[in-house]
Amino acid sequence: MVAVAGAAFGSYWFQPWKLWQDETVEEALPGVVATSAPPARAPRGQPSAQPSSTASGPQTLASGDLISHEHATSGTAKLLRLADGSHVVRLENLDTSNGPDLRVWLTDAPVKQGKAGWHVFDDGKYVSLGKLKGNKGSQNYALPSDVDWSSYSSVSIWCNRFDVSFGAAELARL
Q: pTM of the prediction?
């Protein structure tokens, strides 16, 4: 009976079936907002000027390639400023393992290769942007309005259950 209880607890804790279950999420890049300028007044006797149209869309502030830590991970992390002034972290072409309680963290920790980088992201300042929506694909994570993005330098796919990074990207300012 103890062995059955131990196996049930182990299955719940590790959730090994997730290693074989992929969840793909494909979110669009936050949209481009088209604005029209008011029509220009033409001098008397001349046709009026046509209104001009400008497009403002997401501006990439920082970007970096994801590297593997506890699990093989690839893709790109980008920090974007949207037309309305808000900010998002965008993961593009993400490919990592699924796991229990995965989060997207914006951190001030340096990204280190190999095992040296597995546990550094909870040592300093970090902001959890929410649960990982899918272990594959492209997805957006809004930054809270009170977060000063400039004091963070990396993104980690963080496993809360085991306090380990699945993968991370150093954000290079553009």
A: 0.78
